[in-house]
Amino acid sequence: xxxxxxxxxxxxxxxxxxxxxxxxxxxxxxxxxxxxxxxxxxxxxxxxxxxxxxxxxxxxxxxxxxxxxxxxxxxxxxxxxxxxxxxxxxxxxxxxxxxxxxxxxxxxxxxxxxxxxxxxxxxxxxxxxxxxxxxxxxxxxxxxxxxxxxxxxxxxxxxxxxxxxxxxxxxxxxxxxxxxxxxxxxxxxxxxxxxxxxxxxxxxxxxxxxxxxxxxxxxxxxxxxxxxxxxxxxxxxxxxxxxxxxxxxxxxxxxxxxxxxxxxxxxxxxxxxxxxxxxxxxxxxxxxxxxxxxxxxxxxxxxxxxxxxxxxxxxxxxxxxxxxxxxxxxxxxxxxxxxxxxx
Length: 343
Ligand code: CP3
Known about the structure:
The protein has 343 residues and is of the alpha/beta class. Helices cover 48% and strands 12% of the residues. Bound molecules: coproporphyrinogen III.
């Protein structure tokens, strides 16, 4: 039994005494204790050693007071398990030295046995669940197929992911083959996360908003729909497609319990597009956490008033930035926890 199940009840659409709050990328580089661990262990060592992943997952729960834990890992462990080399280079981000460009490259990939290749994630989930001891729910996650394709084809981060798009537009059959392989792997991966104790699953489509509405349907939503359909009878789900506000109606129709939104849309407009049944999550501008604390308090209260009571999970509109002072993150969380809706 959970002592704090605000997140779960909000995702089910139930009324709660207050709005739940967590922050995307809450376990990470703005926390001094995380930075200390980074000096001793490589990024993938931190992901692969369950006791380290658990320690990092718990840091924002203990130190910032969020209403949910999200397992410390990365979306790129899936391409890694499928057979691609992934490096994380400090101050540069992910690098995949042998990206997918041709049909021949696709032959190097496999749909892995997830227990064998990603067992360390399930181990970390089990250990974290035990250490949490029912304090807050535990969120598992994966990258959406389109966002993973972006990295697998481009080979690194990019503002436009033009090479990934060119791959889809010049070799669509190959692109769909790759997207389906990622989808099949992701379904098995997320089902195993649920078995290991994840209470909620979030899909991160960080680059969904780079596509036109028609291409988003073809190269992203079609696959996310399959994943939500495979999971929705087993676990609560959240879809976060950054920048893809134009597809809120279609995303609500997938049956996901929650939809993440970024700060480039008003809560009222998002609600209008998404309809009244789904829970919305967001949408504080992560850079707004760099404002002075009184200003953070004011803008958070405005956001909560704009969403109104119920069917809202307070969060950022994208991941927390590494240069956010910890007391500013805490001010965000505390303001949500103390807020009382007037109606
Ligand atoms: O939310 C959490 O606290 C859990 C951990 C988590 C990480 N990555 C740890 C991480 C989650 C949920 C992710 C998701 C992720 N990873 C996404 C989707 C969300 C988003 O922000 O759009 C993406 C696109 C990635 C790929 C990735 N991993 C990038 C682009 C980078 C480098 C730049 C960056 O944002 O940090 C990473 C590395 C990474 N993943 C770090 C952490 C804490 C930083 C590594 C370090 O410096 O220690």
